Each structure stands twice: as C-alpha cells, then as structure tokens.
Amino acid sequence: MVTSPPPDKHPKNPRLWDVLIVGAGPAGCAAALFAALGGCTVLLTEKCAVGGGMLQAPEIRDWPGEVCPIDGIALGERMRKQVLSAGAVLRYGEVTAVSLPAPTDTVTAVFSSAPAPDGTRHHTELHARHLILATGTTPPPPGIPAGTLPTDAACRTDLPHIYAIGACRTPGSSRIVTSCADGYRAVMDILGK
Q1: At what angle do helices 26-37 and 176-191 cross, to 10 degrees?
Q2: What is the DSSP-derived secondary structure letter of residue 81?
Q3: Given CA atoms 21, 27, 33, 36 in this order, what sign does their dihedral have?
Q4: Confidence check: pLDDT of 193 > 80
C-alpha cells in the first residue's frame, strides 16, 4: 500500500514520486486523478496540452456527467482543473529517457521542460515508484520498447513497475471512457501494493 501525505500536503517536487504519468490525455488524467485522490504523490507530464487526441474532437457525447455535447478542448480544460484540484502536479515538457529498475525498485526518467522564451530547456532526473505510460499514439520514451506494450488486466507490462494505459495499450481505441477505465485499473493495482 502506498503511504503518502493527503493531496493537500503533497510536496511540489519530491525526490521520489509515487506515480509518474507520461501523457495527459483522458487515460493519463484519469490515472492522475485516481492516484492523487488515493494519497499518492503524482507527477503528470504533457508535452502539448491536456486532453491528448481528444482535443481534436469537435463534439464529445459519451462523457459521463455531460448532458450536452462538449468539445475536446473544453473537456481537456475541465480535466486539467480536476487533476490539479486533486493534488497532482502537472509539468509541461517531455520525458526523453527512461531507465528501468535494476538494483532499486524505482524507475528513473529524464524530463525535459517545455522551451523557455529563449529556447532553452531544463533537464531534470525524476524518480518514481511506478511509471504509467499514457502516450496515446505517440511512441513511448527511449528506454521503453516501441509499439503496443502487452499488458495484463491491471494494465501491468512485463517491465517492472511500468503500466501502459489507453491507446498505447489498445491500438485504435478512441473511446474516452475505456481509456479512463485503464487509468483506474492501473491505479487500483498500485494502491493495492
């Protein structure tokens, strides 16, 4: 079981995150939300905008709680606000490398921040107990095998401490609710450890 401070007590830059999530589409946002509400320190990374491929949708009709259709951009903004209010931390940029756990039980990743106005990027080494890949159709970061990662019912890959959810687990999946369910399954497995 993960033992962390409640979401309102989370440090903004811990030395070790409970959960690092790569990709802030529906699957990544769902995982971030559930993990933060479960008491984990959560870092959600996104290289463009929260919402992923859903941002291109002019009309989404199958989102629970929405009576009227909503566009992908508006739903992405709602997801961003909800994830942050739950206590997750969102950083814009990209994970440029991943080192799999060897002697330790942590995943190490290199995060490259979004470019500053002068074009410079800051590179930070991140450490996490669990890595959730929610990269959609974008290839995973270097250090992770390319292509669809085979997973079990809890979205665990064959790689230790690494989960794959959403479209990087199920190619061609465009159902937002299915992606969110993957995020929930992965986090329930993490919280149960």
Answers
A1: 30
A2: H
A3: negative
A4: no
114 assigned to some structural domain: yes
Domain extent at residue 41: 7-191
Sign of CA dihedral 73, 75, 76, 80: positive
| CA distance linking residue 87 with residue 136, whole number of Å | 23
Flag whether 2 is in a domain: no
Mean pLDDT within 147-163: 85
Residue 57, in any domain of the structure: yes
Question: Which amino acid, residue 26?
Answer: P
Instruction: Identify the H or E element spanning 90.
Output: strand 89-99
Q: Is the pLDDT of residue 12 over 90?
A: no
Task: Find the Cα–Cα–Cα–Cα dihedral 146, 170, 77, 127, rounded to 10°.
Answer: -40
User: Is there a contact between 164 and 133 (Cβ–Cβ < 8 Å)?
Assistant: yes
The residues, ordered by sequence, that sit 6+ positions from 11 with a Cβ below 8 Å of its Cβ are: 41
